[in-house]
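Protocol step 4 of 6: record predicted structures for both targets in the notebook before any analysis. Target 1:
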Amino acid sequence: MLGVQDQTLVDNLCKFIKYNFKLYHLDLSHTGLTTLMLREFGSSLRRAKSLLSLHLNGNPGLSSALKAEMHQRVHCAESEETISLNVISSNLVKKTH
């Protein structure tokens, strides 16, 4: 269970993603996000249709399993081009081909 401040932070991040239709890059590197915070935040990634890159390096809660879970949640912006999702280091990055 998250503390009040941590829950407020995650709630605000989720709202930011939900209502920001032109979010292309989000860098949350080295922000102290825990596994629980990242999981809750990760649930909002399905709404991030315009997101091209998400950087999570240096967060104590980031693991290989969580990266794979988040990778599954990220949706690509609709395009006529083929879009693939690549995980580079601890970053989630979408690239168009």
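Target 2:
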Amino acid sequence: MISYYDASGELTGTPISFENVIAKTSSGGFTVATDDLDAASRNFTWNVELDREVRRKLQIRINYLQSATGDLPVVIPMPDVSGSFWWTFTSGFSLLREFPISRLEA
């Protein structure tokens, strides 16, 4: 359900109710999916770490981390002429890259 409010916090208009629908892309638009309803997200994560003693009681740690996730669910509210639906697609993608450097003192 989606509701809209004005600046004073008062409800404007009527709340819109949406039905859940699993969708897939097709030529020219979207269709309701009837197959592959049990699709799951996939993730691949890896990292490399290097520790180096710079001098006595001082150590530097350099790390690289990458994580990629595919087939994430994406939910889009779409009102249309036949009703209002929450279209859910499994076409989302996420990519995370980190490169932290730490100084460790003993």
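Step 5 preliminary note on target 2. Residues 49 and 63 are 4 Å apart (CA to CA). Strands lie at 2-5, 11-16, 19-26, 29-32, 42-55, 58-80, 83-98, 101-105.
Proceed to step 6 after PI sign-off.
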